[in-house]
Write a structure and sequence with these properties.
The structure is a homodimer.
Chain A (H helix, E strand, L loop, with lengths): L8 E12 L3 H12 L4 E4 L13 E2 L1 H5 L4 H7 L1 E3 L1 E7 L5 E8 L11 E3 L2 H14 L4 E2 L2 E8 L3 H5 L6 E7 L15 E12 L6 H5 L4 E15 L11 E6 L2 E7 L5 E7 L1 H4 L14 H12 L12 E12 L3 E2 L3 E3 L5 E2 L7 H20 L9 H26 L13 H10 L1 H4 L33 E4 L5 E3 L10 E8 L4 H18 L11 E7 L8 H8 L7 E2 L12 H5 L7 E5 L5 E6 L4 H7 L13
Parallel strand pairs in A: 1-2, 1-11, 2-8, 5-13, 11-18, 22-23, 23-24
Antiparallel strand pairs in A: 3-7, 4-7, 5-6, 9-10, 10-11, 12-15, 12-16, 13-14, 14-15, 16-19, 17-18, 20-21, 20-24, 22-25, 25-26
Chain lengths: ~625, ~625
C-alpha cells in the first residue's frame, strides 16, 4: 500500500445495515441495531459531531422510551410550565396565563427536557462506543444503486444495495470522476437507512420527491445566557406582541433559546427573495427581541452560543423507501417548523420504529414484508405532523388580535391549538393504524389500553418483594415482543388451574417461532390481582417459566402511595383476564382474549416465520 | 536510592488529615474531605479492597444523604417488605404476617438497599479517584504519638500527631525493631481518624477501652443464590422456629444472605469456649437452615459466595477522641450484632458527622472546640444503638413461645420491638442533643422540623420554572451551613418590604463570617408561599442574592401530584415566617425567629470565627 501513490485504492466491504447520516435519526438507528447485535455501519460527511445549537427539545414520550431517561434527566433542563404573554392595555406585553407545558394526562414525565443536540447525540455515541460502533467520518457518498433482481431482493441474506464513498467532505457538484480520488470505498449492504437530513443526498439520488411548500414566515433563533428582568425566562413562553411573536425555550445551565419572528424586510434580499444572512445577525435578533418584550429588558450578553435564520417550510417525502431495501428517515422525509419541538423527536421515532423491524427480519424471526409497515406507520405520522404544524405556525406567526385589529389571533385561539394538540406534541398521542402488526379486533378485553398506542404508564408491584415497578421499564426495546398476561387472582386455587392451562396454551402458540426457548424471542410478564399480603410469586414464575422479578401484582406498594388499580386503568376485567401483546417499540400490537389463545397465533403467523411446523391449533 | 539496600529508608511527610483504615467509615471520611478540598491521606494494611461478604444493608437515611442514591438505586437490591414466620400447628413454620420493612413514616426512600460491602466501597473509591485520592495499601501502623504541648494542640495549623508505618501487612507481635525494615514512613498529621475496625490498632495503642460484654448467642452467616420453594425468599424475613431462628436479607442479583442461629454445641470448642470454625462450614449452616425452614426446602447451591460465624458482643468505646486530635470511628468505637443492619450505616454516619467539622476547623471558619461535638453526638448514638441491639438480639435469639414453652418470645413481643425501633433502625430517628451546634430555643417557630433531627423530606416547587425539587437535594454535605428562609407571601407588596429588611439583617449577621461573599460559607434558600400562577422568582433572587434555582415556593407541581403543604408540614406560620439553620450534615441546627435575626448571630458566634469585627447588633 505504501508505494501506490496517486492510484485509485478502492476498498469493498459488506454490511447488514448501512446508515448514512449521524444526526438523531441515524444515531438512534445505529445504537438500537448495535444493541441488538446487528452488523451495522454508520457514516457521516461532517468531520465532527455537532457542538451547539440545532434541535434541543425532548418530548415526554421520548423520555419514556429508549433508555435515555437517566442521563437526560441528569443533564437536561426540565420545562414544566408554559406562560403566555399578549399585548397589554398600557403598551408592551403582559402575562395572560400560565399552564402546564405538557397537558397530556398520561405522561409519565409531565415535562419536556431541553438540552443541546450535541449532548443528546453524545448519549448515543457513548453507548455505541461501549458496543464497539463508531461513526465513520468524514465520508461522502457518491453513488447508490439498488439491485433490480427480484430473487436477490427477496433473499434477506443478499446485499442488493451498492453505495460508493470518497473519503472527506466533498461538495458533490465539484466532483471529478471517482477514479481521480486516491481513497474511496464501495459498501454492499443488505439495507440502507438514509438519515442525511433535510437536503438528503439519499432522497435526491433515488428521486424521492418532497411534497409541500414554503411559507412566508421568517424566524430567527438565538441561544444565549440572558440577563433580563422578565419573570418567565425559565418557562416556555409564547409571546404575541404588536411587534411580532417570540418563543422562549429555557435550556440546560442558565441558557435560553429565543425564536424571534422577523418582518420580511429585515432579512429577505429584495432581488432574490432569499433570506440574506449578511443583513442580520444575533445583535439584530436581540434588537427584535427587545421590541417584542417591552417593557421588560434584555442586556446584551457577552457572547451568543449559536444562532440562525430560517423560513418555515412544510413538506413530506412521497415515499419513505425503495424496494424495502433503502429507507429514508428523519428530516430526510419531513421538514417543518421547529417551534413545537417535534423535529428531533419525530426523527428518532422514525428509526426507533424501523430498527426493531430490521432486527427481526435480519435474525430470520420476521418476514421481510414486515418492513412495509415502516412507511405505512411513519408517513401517516409525518402527514399529521405537517398538518398540525401548518395550523400552529400560522397562529403563532399571526398578528395578535387587538381592538384595532380584530382579525388577529386571540389568546383563546392560540391556547386552543396548544391544548388540542398536546397529545400530539408530547409524542404520547401517536396512534398507529391497523396493519399486519396492529390488530384491534379484541380491544374490548382491555378497553383503555389503546391498540396502536404506547402502553400507558402504570405502577405494579413485584409479587416476590413488593418493589414497585413502572411497567414501561419492563418493556425495553430489546427486539422481543412482550406478552403481558393479566391472569386474574392467582391466590385462588380454581383460577390457578385455569392459569396453568393458559400458560400451556401460550407456550404451544409461541414455541414454533422460538424453538430455542420462548424467552429468546418473547418475554412473558404475568400480572395477578392477588394482594401483596398473601401472594406467592412462585405460583406464577413456575407456570410461565419466567424470572421472579417478572411476576407482578396489581396492588399498592408498602407505603400505599404508588401502584394499584392497574386492571381498572387498563380496562381489564379480573374475572375475565386478557393477554396484551406489546411490540418491541412499546406500542400495543394486539389484545388476545384469555379464553381464546388461538388469536395470538393468528396475529404472529401474519408476519413471523415459523422455525418448526406449527402444531395443530 | 537504588544502591542503598538493607538500610533504613524513612520517608517523612505532613498531612492535614490522616485516616487509618479504608472500610466504610474511613472511606466516607476520605471522600467527604477530598470533596471539600482538604489535604487528606488514607491508608489500610489490607493489600486489596473487600471483594464479597461483610456488611450489606443501607438504611433509608443513608440513601437520603451523601449523594449515594443514584448509584445505590441502580446497583442495589431494594427491601420493601418484611415477613415473619413462626412455628405452625402442623409442625414446621408458617407465615404470620407481612409488613412494610421500613415503618418510619417520613422515610423519603421507604425501603432499605442491600448490596455487598465491596460495591458500596467502590462508590466512594471511584469518586475519590476522580478527585485524585487513592488508598495507600498495604501500610501497617507501628506507633502513634500525640504531642503534649498545649500551644501546639491549640494551633490548628500545627501537626501534633506523629504516626509511623511500615510497608506491607505485618503481624505486629512479630515485629522486630523498626530500623530492621527496609521501607518505612513517618506521617505528621494535624488530625488522625482511626477507622480501623473492631480490633482497632489506634484504639488499643491509645489505651481507649471498649466497655460492654459478649453474649452467648452464636450465629452463622452465609451468602448464596438459593434454589428454594420458600415464597418469601425475596423479602426480609424473621423466622422463629422450634429449631432456631433465621433472618433472610435478599441481595443484589438473585443472591440472598442468611443469618442462622447455631446451638452452642455446634460450634463452640468445649475446652476453650471459643467458636471453632473447623467444626462448621457453609454446608453445616445450610443444614441448620433446612431444619429451621421445614416444610420449605433449600437445594444445595453450586457454591457459597461468603460465610462466617460470630458471637454477638455489645460494646462502646469509653472515649472517641484523644485531645480532639485523634478520633476513632465506626467499628473501632462500637460493636454489636449485624442483623438490624446498623453496622455500616453507623460507621459511615460517624465520619459523616466528623468530616464537615474537621473541614470547617481546617478552613479557619470554625473554632477547634467544634470538634468536641463529635464524641458528644456520636457516643450517645452508639450507646442507644447498643441498648437497642441488646433487646433486639435477645428477642431474636430467644426461643419462640409455644403452648409447651409459654416463656418464649411471642410474635407480638418481637413485632413490637421491630416497630418501636423503626425510627432508629431506619437511621431517620437520630436526634442529636442540645449543644453548641444544636440550639432548640425557638422550636415553636417550626414546630414539626425537629431541631437535632435531619430535615424532613418535602417537595417544593422552583419559583422560576415550577420544577418540583426535594429540599434534601438542595442541602448537600458541601461543608456550608444552609439557611432556609420561610418568607411568607412574596407576591404581597407590604410583605415584600418586610422581606427586604430581613434579607439585609441576615446579610449583616453572616458577613463577619464570610467576608468574601456570603455564598462562600453559607447558602440561602428562600421559600415563598406565593403560588406558581403569579410568583415572580426575581423578587427574591435579587433580595437574597441567590441563583434563580434556589428560590422555592410552597405549591404543588403542574400535575398537582407532588409538593404543597410545606409550611404546614414543617409547622411554620406563613404570616410569621421562620429561618431554619441546617448543618452541613443535613440536621436542623437551630430555628431563628423571622422577627429576631439577632438570635441567628448568637448561634453562629458560639462556634464560628469572625473574620472581620462584628457589626453592632
Amino acid at each position: 500500500m505504501g508505494g501506490k501513490r496517486n492510484t485509485s485504492l478502492i476498498k469493498e466491504s459488506n454490511v447488514d445495515v448501512l446508515i448514512i447520516g449521524a444526526g438523531p435519526a441515524g444515531l438512534m438507528a445505529a445504537h438500537a441495531l448495535a444493541k441488538s447485535g446487528v452488523n451495522v455501519r454508520i457514516v457521516d460527511q461532517r468531520p465532527d459531531k455537532v457542538a451547539a445549537g440545532q434541535a434541543d427539545g425532548i418530548q415526554p414520550r421520548t423520555i419514556e422510551s429508549y433508555d435515555l431517561a437517566e442521563r437526560l434527566l441528569r443533564e437536561g433542563n426540565q420545562v414544566h410550565m408554559a406562560a403566555f404573554y399578549n399585548p397589554s392595555a398600557s403598551g408592551g406585553i403582559a402575562l395572560t396565563d400560565r399552564v402546564r407545558d405538557v397537558a397530556a394526562p398520561s405522561a409519565r414525565f409531565p415535562f419536556e427536557v431541553t438540552l443541546h443536540q450535541g449532548a443528546i447525540e453524545a448519549i448515543f455515541l457513548d453507548s455505541m462506543e461501549s458496543l464497539g460502533v463508531k461513526v465513520c467520518r468524514p465520508l461522502t457518498p457518491t453513488s447508490i444503486q439498488v439491485s433490480e433482481n427480484d430473487d436477490q431482493l427477496k433473499d434477506v441474506n443478499s446485499h442488493p444495495v451498492r453505495v460508493s464513498f470518497i473519503l472527506g467532505r466533498v461538495v458533490l457538484r465539484n466532483l471529478s470522476p471517482l477514479d481521480d480520488h486516491e481513497e474511496s470505498e464501495i459498501v454492499h449492504a443488505k439495507f440502507v437507512i438514509g438519515a442525511d437530513g433535510a437536503h438528503s443526498w439519499v432522497r435526491k439520488t433515488l428521486s424521492l420527491t418532497l411534497d409541500g411548500e414554503q411559507t412566508t414566515y421568517i424566524w430567527g433563533v438565538v441561544d444565549m445566557t440572558p440577563d433580563t428582568d422578565f419573570p418567565d425566562i425559565r418557562n416556555r413562553c409564547a409571546i404575541h406582541s404588536n411587534n411580532g411573536s417570540c418563543m422562549i425555550i429555557p435550556r440546560e445551565d442558565d441558557k435560553v433559546r429565543l425564536y424571534v419572528q422577523l418582518g420580511d424586510r429585515d432579512a429577505v434580499d429584495e432581488e432574490s427573495g432569499r433570506v440574506d444572512k449578511s443583513k442580520i445577525g444575533p445583535h439584530e435578533l436581540l434588537d427584535a427581541t427587545r421590541k417584542i418584550f417591552y417593557p421588560y429588558t434584555f442586556k446584551t450578553p457577552e457572547s451568543f452560543d449559536w444562532w440562525t435564520i430560517y423560513i418555515i417550510g412544510q413538506r413530506v417525502a412521497s415515499k419513505f423507501s425503495v424496494k424495502d431495501r433503502v429507507f429514508i428517515a428523519g428530516d430526510a422525509c419531513h421538514t417543518h417548523s421547529p417551534k413545537a419541538g417535534q423535529g428531533m423527536n419525530a426523527s428518532m421515532n422514525d428509526t426507533h420504529n424501523l430498527a426493531w423491524k430490521l432486527t427481526q427480519v435480519l435474525r430470520g424471526w420476521a418476514d421481510i414484508s414486515l418492513l412495509q409497515t415502516y412507511e405505512l406507520e411513519r408517513r401517516k405520522y409525518a402527514q399529521d405532523l405537517i398538518s398540525f404544524d401548518r395550523q400552529f405556525a400560522k397562529l403563532f406567526s399571526g398578528k395578535p388580535r387587538t381592538e384595532e385589529y380584530m382579525d388577529g389571533v386571540s389568546h383563546e385561539d392560540f391556547f386552543k391549538i396548544f391544548q388540542t394538540f398536546s397529545g400530539f406534541t408530547s409524542g404520547i398521542g401517536i396512534h398507529y393504524a391497523p396493519s399486519l402488526i396492529t390488530d384491534s379486533s379484541y380491544q374490548a378485553h382491555a378497553k383503555k389500553l389503546i391498540i396502536g398506542q404506547r402502553v400507558l404508564p402504570q405502577i405494579f408491584v413485584r409479587a416476590a418483594d413488593s418493589r414497585p415497578v413502572e411497567i414501561q421499564d419492563l418493556l425495553p426495546a430489546d427486539s422481543r415482543f412482550k406478552l403481558i398476561v393479566f391472569v386474574g387472582n392467582s391466590s385462588d386455587a380454581t383460577r390457578r388451574d385455569r392459569i396453568r392451562r393458559l400458560a400451556e396454551d401460550i407456550r404451544d402458540v409461541l414455541r414454533p417461532y422460538s424453538p430455542d426457548g420462548i424467552s429468546a424471542v418473547f418475554e412473558i410478564i404475568p400480572i395477578s390481582c392477588a394482594k401483596k399480603a398473601d401472594v406467592r410469586y412462585n405460583d406464577l414464575s413456575k407456570l410461565f417459566g419466567c424470572h421472579w422479578s417478572k411476576v407482578l401484582i396489581d396492588d399498592t406498594d408498602v407505603s400505599g402511595k404508588q401502584g394499584g388499580d392497574g386492571y381498572s386503568n387498563y380496562g381489564v376485567e379480573p374475572l375475565v383476564g386478557a393477554i396484551i401483546v406489546v411490540r418491541p417499540d412499546g406500542y400495543v400490537g394486539m389484545v388476545a382474549p384469555f379464553e381464546n389463545v388461538k388469536e395470538l397465533g393468528a396475529y404472529f403467523v401474519g408476519f413471523m416465520k415459523v422455525s418448526t411446523p406449527l402444531p395443530n391449533m
